[in-house]
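User: Sequence recovery, please. Input:
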């Protein structure tokens, strides 16, 4: 059974307007401790969590190199719609992501917490269960980024995809076939 961690990102509004993505980083349950340890070791002194945004090019390369060695697969849903609110983008991405994860089979996905907005994710999952789009076997959890180091993998994958969309495909290429892109 697979476990996933997910993060969201907007693309660069000036170079890729109206684009939003959710990246899920999936791994086998037995690999979770190693994944968490690897991400924890990447945290710099004074850094609350490993984070792509604001990192230097050299730091980003270190992050990509680390993720490329991990037993993870990325499943990324990209959505572009000019003028759409992030909430709509997120819902549309989750409408594609959640059924696909359930079919892999993935038993749990943990999103970085957005506070009170977390409820909308679980409400959508309940709606999918009622419609028989997703089985009861998939669970959604939310965690604070600094408390769950594995969330950094999804953040790094998001960063690599955004960079690829704005003309720097090197980071995503370094991850090779470990990342699947889906446009909705």
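Assistant: Recovered sequence (184 residues):
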């Amino acid at each position: 059974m697979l476990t996933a961690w997910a993060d969201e990102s907007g693309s660069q509004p000036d170079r890729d307007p109206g684009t939003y993505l959710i990246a899920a980083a999936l791994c086998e349950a037995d690999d979770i401790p190693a994944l968490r340890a690897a991400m924890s070791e990447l945290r710099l002194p004074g850094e609350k969590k490993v984070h792509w945004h604001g990192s230097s090019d050299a730091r980003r390369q270190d992050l990509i190199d680390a993720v490329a060695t991990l037993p993870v697969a990325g499943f990324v849903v990209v959505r572009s719609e000019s003028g759409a609110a992030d909430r709509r983008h997120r819902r549309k991405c989750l409408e594609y992501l959640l059924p696909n994860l359930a079919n892999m089979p993935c038993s749990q996905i943990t999103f970085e917490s957005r506070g009170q907005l977390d409820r909308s994710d679980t409400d959508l999952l309940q709606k999918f269960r009622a419609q028989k789009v997703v089985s009861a076997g998939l669970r959604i959890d939310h965690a604070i980024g600094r408390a769950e180091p594995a969330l950094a993998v999804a953040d790094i994958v998001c960063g690599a995809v955004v960079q690829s969309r704005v003309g720097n495909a090197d980071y995503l290429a370094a991850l090779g076939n470990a990342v699947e892109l889906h446009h909705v």
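Strands lie at 2-10, 19-28, 73-80, 106-112, 139-143, 179-183.
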